[in-house]
Design brief:
The chain has 86 residues and is of the alpha+beta class. It has helices at residues 23-36, 41-57, and strands at 60-64, 70-73. The chain has a two-stranded antiparallel sheet with strand order 1-2.
Length: 86
């Protein structure tokens, strides 16, 4: 995130073999929700990153795709609170 004054990076460890669908939409919705609460943009992005990282880490495996691989679904029921992983 670059606001014209400083650049911020938001990172989390890569989870090998994880390919859940919907991470971008979920991340943007989490950021938008924080902005709607009045949170400043840098903190809203950080909160969204914490949430999406937790949702990926707690993903569900459901059914199988055409190649026999399980579908990986985000766990949208994780707490949006603070996390040590983001």
């Amino acid at each position: 995130l670059h606001d014209g004054k400083e650049e911020r990076h938001y990172a989390a460890p890569m989870l090998p073999g994880v390919n859940p669908h919907g991470t971008g939409c979920t991340f943007s919705a989490a950021v938008a929700a924080e902005l709607a609460r009045g949170t400043a943009l840098p903190e809203a992005v950080a909160a969204g990153k914490r949430y999406i990282t937790r949702a990926i880490g707690a993903r569900f495996l459901y059914g199988r795709d055409g190649a026999g691989q399980p579908y990986q679904l985000l766990n949208h029921f994780v707490s949006p609170g603070e996390s040590d992983s983001a």
